[in-house]
Each structure stands twice: as C-alpha cells, then as structure tokens.
Amino acid sequence: MKIYDISKEISETMIVYKNRDNKKIVREIVANHSDNHFHESKITLDMHCGTHIDAPLHMVENGHTIEQLPLENYMGTCKVFDLTAVESFIRQKDIVHLPINEKDIVLFKTRNSYSKVYDFNFVYIEEDAATYLVNKKIRTVGIDAMSVERDKPGHPTHKILLGNGVAVIEDLQLAEVNAGEYELIALPLKIKNSEASPIRAILIEK
Ligand SMILES: [Zn+2]
Questions:
Q1: Does domain 47-205 have CATH number 3.50.30.50?
Q2: For this structure, is 155 an active site residue?
Q3: How far, in Å, is the centroid of ligand 1 from the Cα of 129?
C-alpha cells in the first residue's frame, strides 16, 4: 500500500500567509529532559497555517464550525486533477472537461505545489469555477494554495463554496502525486466552535 503524505510540515520556519510574522507559529518548551526528565511543549498555531480545513464560519456569519462538519467530506474516494498548466487562476473553462460528478471529493494540483517560497501570485479558484463546482454538487474541493482565492474583496470564492455546502481543504502538498483516483484521509481536529482546523492529509493509492 503506497501512502502519499500531502500535508505541509508545521514548524517555526514554514511558509506562512504573505510571510507575516503574526502568522508564524510560536513554540514553547514547557519541560525538558535535563531539568524535568520529560519533554513537554506548546504551540500557538494560526488555524489557517499549513494544510487545513476551512469551516463555513470562516466566511459565513453563524456558519457551521469544525466539530459540526460531516467526516465523509474529508475521507473516501478522491480525484486528483493536474492543473499545473494553469498560469494564474482556475476558471470554469479549465475544469469543465474534467470528470467531476455529484458527491465527488476533488483535489486540484497546480504549480503552487512546486513553489519553495511564498508566491504572492499563487494559483487560486476563480468565482466561475467555484459556482461550477457548487452546481455539480461536489462534496469537497482541495487545493495546494494557502487560500482558495487571492486578495478578492468580499471573499467571493470562499463564500460561494462554504455558503453552499462544499467543503474546502487548503495548502495541500501535491508535488509527488500524479493525477488519478486515491483514498483520502484528511480529518480535522475536534475543536469546538472553531472556524478551521489543521489536518494531516494523506492519499492512499488504490
Ligand atoms: Zn483557511
């Protein structure tokens, strides 16, 4: 059984949104082996740092929170599509020919997966593509971008997806994965009233 780890590593030096200092994780060593004979630590982690799930509350007032979401959205058969040829954003015309069906979990692999620094021009999902996915009644869309959209006033792509019951996974790492069908496991932590959660996302080859 071949397992692909499609998660970003969480560390003090990981790439964070717009390289902002206030997005970086803070790690505190609470106890160590020389002083305490055991090791214990804490981290302060922005919920949108690294591979994570956005719950509707992130963009929809009174929207559902992480612990209320159906786990079927984050596990099961999933289709990875190669959109590495897309230059700046994914439009309906880029995905209309793909075999996307009702209840699908779809992951878009883009050139973002190969970026080694924060790319201010990362590939994202344009509104017309988001509307197309909603009309297709898919279950979940995942992308290898820190956000499903980039600097859009009013966050229309998030609102179209999260406001219409499509689950969103962000900041996947898909460089090692070819297009095809896999089993996905990408479960959120059970954090009450949270608008997002970090995940460990894996694909299992069928
Ligand atoms: Zn997010």
A1: yes
A2: no
A3: 18
